[in-house]
Amino acid sequence: MSDDKSTLENMADAAGAKLKEGADRARAAGHDVAGAFSDSPKHDIEAAEDRAKAEVHNAEAHAEYREGKREAQDGDGH
User: Fold this and answer.
1) Could you tell me which residues belong to the region Disordered (predicted)?
2) Which of 54, 30, 32 lies closest to 41, judged by CA?
């Protein structure tokens, strides 16, 4: 997040972070399925790691969105 980004750049970054969040959650679900067919704790660990990454990307998306909204509301969009 940067003060010199435009509204559009902030919103694009927010969308990108949401896409990354979705990919992380999909990977976590894949590890959950693999873990159901395996006795290895590896998949549980990897699923937890991917869920943590998803939460980070979710927080980034919300921060970028809020910054973009603030930029849009201040009147100049920059």
Assistant:
1) 1-78
2) 32
What's the rounded Cα separation, in Å, for the pair 75 and 60? 23
The pTM score is 0.85
Radius of gyration of the chain (CA): 17
User: What is the domain partition of the chain in residue ranges?
Assistant: 20-73
Tokens, residue 17:
């972070």
In the chain, % helix, strand, coil (3-state, to 5) comes to 80, 0, 20
Q: How far does CA 31 lie from the centroid of its chain?
A: 18
CB–CB of 28/54 below 8 Å? yes
pLDDT in tens, 10-28: 999 999 999 999 999 999 9
